[in-house]
Amino acid sequence: MYFLFKIDMINIDQLSNYTKLSKSTIRYYEKLGLIQSFRNPENNYRLYKENAISELLCIKTLKNLNFSLKEIKEIISYFRNEDTPQENIYSIFYNKLSEIERDIQNLINKKINILELLKICQSNSCKCNIKEKIYIPSKY
Known about the structure:
Blueprint: E1 9-11, H1 12-19, H2 23-31, E2 38-39, E3 46-49, H3 51-64, H4 69-80, H5 86-123, H6 130-134
Antiparallel strand pairs: 1-3, 2-3
């Protein structure tokens, strides 16, 4: 005996409402291969399986964690392939963490530089000479 299960499909408006992503963003992600749509044979409109909601929410989360779309595509392909070794996924997340640690250190260094410039400005009550510390006059 065979059973046919109806797969609920949603249109791009519904998908946009559920995920709070614009329709153009959804189409762009589809173009990149991050999600898949199907065409309604009656009107040629895009239809999406309900799991597209969770896939798009996953993409939003990863983007908020500063993953590039290229990295996200790789992560999603690993998620879709159950045979993917966990080390592959771990490696992507570990590399992103290392990148964020470098970014944090760079921001700390910038903060230190700005604090030093503020000290220069505060120490000179008559005239702030930050300009002399950072300004390079043009030769033109």
